[in-house]
Amino acid sequence: MAGISLPRTTLLVLCGVPGCGKSTFASRYFKNTMIVSSDQCRFLVSDSETNMAASREAFKLFRFTIERRLSIGRFTVADSTAVTRRARGELLRIGRKYGFNVTLLIFNIPEETCLARNAGRERRVIRSVVARMQKMLQQTLQVAHIEGFDDVYIISEEDLDNSSFEIEIRNHEVTLPGPFDIIGDIHGCYQELVMLLEKLGYRNRFNYYAHPAGRKAVFLGDLTDRGPRNLDSFRLVKAMVDSGNALYVPGNHCRKLSRYLEGRSIKITHGLEKTVAEIEALPEDEREFFKEEFLKLYHEAPPYLILDGGKLVVAHGGIKRGHDRKSN
What we know:
Layout (H helix, E strand, L loop, with lengths): L2 E5 L2 E6 L6 H8 L5 E3 H9 L8 H17 L4 E4 L5 H13 L3 E7 L3 H9 L7 H17 L7 E5 L1 H5 L4 E5 L9 E4 L6 H10 L3 E3 L2 E3 L5 E4 L10 H13 L3 E3 L3 H10 L10 H9 L3 H17 L3 E4 L4 E4 L13
Helix pairs in contact: 2-3, 10-12
């Protein structure tokens, strides 16, 4: 297997016995913040990864943390053994609750290899436990494909040693079912945006707008320029995106503002002068904070989004040839 491609709204469930290499695999391919580890949760609640008496509380934290990440739309890796059907079923239920793709990654590594790696670890598991869990893993291989996961992949020892193995996160593909409210070209018209959101049923809570029925706004770029409250418009959208209540793709005015903030030579016209005037009126530390926040939103945003299982594709303008759904 050369690699795996996953939507950005994925709960990736790792399944394997101690010493199989799944935690090392996770740290190699994913940011630390993406990984929720049952061992780390046990350490957090009891000061020890080996304190099995703390497992109940540790797994409460494990599931709680996963839910909180999924609730704001974050790609998440669940790193536990997951060799029991009950454990996998609980994670599948959580993923489905939030409309996520749930993919199972099974580490089918020979028992002798796992035992050898386990012997060299600081936190070792006794041999009989590894053997018992290996039998459970073999049973998992027989039934995992009928448990309801969107995809099931088997990782072999060869895959772990393959330097060309890759994992792609399709940042443009969101599995959430909606409904979606698509809003484009705000252009600094903050007050009108607030009126629109409230008309649609969104309510301001904890300094961001959210819909009580779970609807999500999809902002199609050009947040600033021309209107009277450009920075406030950006802040509103950023807060909704960060809280998981909105999605965003950039527009041409977003690109031009990003180039200005990066210090590139551009013409400050077509409304950008109004945004620049607001930025220059800020205290120096607030200017720098705005720059960092805007560039983070802009650079992390995909050029288009595929939503609702491919039934809806949104972009600010158009999509380049070769970037259609089939090519991804």
